[in-house]
Amino acid sequence: MCHRLLQGALVCAALVSSSSWADGLPQINTDTQWHFALTPYLWLPNVGGSLRFPLPGGGEADASTGPYNYLQNLRFAAMLQGEARQGDWSILADAIYLNFGSHSTAVSTKGSSVFQRELTSSGETSLKGGLIQLGGGHTIPQLPRASLDAIAGIRYLSVSSSLDASLQANFGGPGPGLNPQIHASQREEIFDGFVGVRGRASLTADGRWYLPFYLDVGTGTSDLTWQAMAGIGYAMKWGDITLSYRYLEFRGSGDQLVQTLRLNGPARSVTFRFSRAVGPA
């Protein structure tokens, strides 16, 4: 596990974008001040994918999850990012929590005895989880109207899900079949290293209107995780307002709970910036 995490951090890992991480870089400062950014934001992604649950007797059930409807399924959400920058160096953080209620699902099972060849007649899954990302960045030499940061760090995802299903057994012969009820729940923790880039390109000479962009790829507990973002932003003295579209994906394998997990949708953010001098006055 540690070897995979280190390999992910050094080889190809991933960064989840946030408003402060990916919605564009502030003007690069060459003074000794620390420049801070705090960004509450709202991301409205479609959430979908496939999950794998262990069953009694050694079998397993694969269940589709989502797409969840925010108005019908969302129970609670919280999202916040932060950044601290001095000169060309920056420290980045992002935190998300989502809790969805039950959602109808399709289930297939495999394994031993009664679960060997079955399909669902009905089923429901629930999903909740938290995402925390910590990383650092360094500015690559800037172009006249564009800036770019190389970034690296660690992303942590904690996912809990449950499955309730009524299965219709089909053994290929005449006579009544079996209709077992199954209930399973599982929690998984995912650690992925990441590398990536983020940047912004000014649309106007004063830099107030700009295009933020972001791309990453990575691995670790996940076989693959990647993310892309693009949008438009407006900068003011106190901070930025941005509108963007964000895509995030995890791909697992084997007996992992998360086989695939995709989050994609629009995001709106407001970034508040402030500075503090360091060193002797």
Automatic annotation (TrEMBL):
> Keyword set for this entry?
Signal
Please tell me the species this chain comes from.
Answer: Pararobbsia alpina
Using the record, list the residue span of the signal peptide; answer none if the entry has no such feature. Answer: 1-22
Protein's name according to its UniProt entry: Outer membrane protein beta-barrel domain-containing protein
